[in-house]
Amino acid sequence: MSEPNKGLIITVKAARINADKSQEDAANSLGISITAYKRKENGLSRFYVDEIAVLSRLFKVNMTNFFEAQCHKKTRKELG
C-alpha cells in the first residue's frame, strides 16, 4: 500500500496548517522558542534534519515531502 502523501513536496508551514497545529505546538515539540520556530518557518533560519524528523511525525507527513532547501544536512548535535 502506498503512502497518501508520498512524492508530494510541501512546506513546513503548509504541513503545520494542514495538521491543524500552531506554531507554539511545533516549537514545543522541537524544544525551541516560538520566535526561533517562526524564523525557521519563514526561511530566516534553516531546519536541521532531526527537527524535520520531529515535525514530520507531529504533522503526520513523510519527511521526504519537505523541501530539501529547508533542511540543514547535519543534526544540531553534529554541529555542536
Structural notes for this entry:
This protein has one domain: 434 Repressor (Amino-terminal Domain). The chain is built from 5 helices and 2 strands. It has helices at about 10-20, 25-30, 35-40, 50-60, 75-80, and strands at about 45-50, 70. The chain has a two-stranded parallel sheet. Strand 1, helix 4 and strand 2 (about 70) form a beta-alpha-beta unit. The model has no long low-confidence stretch (mean pLDDT about 80). Pfam families: HTH_3. This is HTH cro/C1-type domain-containing protein. GO terms for molecular function: DNA binding.
The total domain count is 1
Secondary structural class = mainly alpha
* Major sheet summary line: 2 strands, parallel
What is the architecture at the second tier of CATH? Orthogonal Bundle
Q: According to CATH, what is the class?
A: Mainly Alpha
> Low-confidence runs (pLDDT<50, min 5 residues)?
none
Percentage beta strand: 5-15%
Give me the count of strands.
Answer: 2
Shape: globular
Output the strand order for the largest sheet: 1-2
How many helix segments?
5
Radius of gyration: 12 Å
CATH topology: 434 Repressor (Amino-terminal Domain)
Q: Please estimate the helix content.
A: 40-55%
The assembly state of the depicted protein chains is single chain
Overall pLDDT metric: 82
What's the short story on this structure?
The protein is mainly α and 80 residues long.
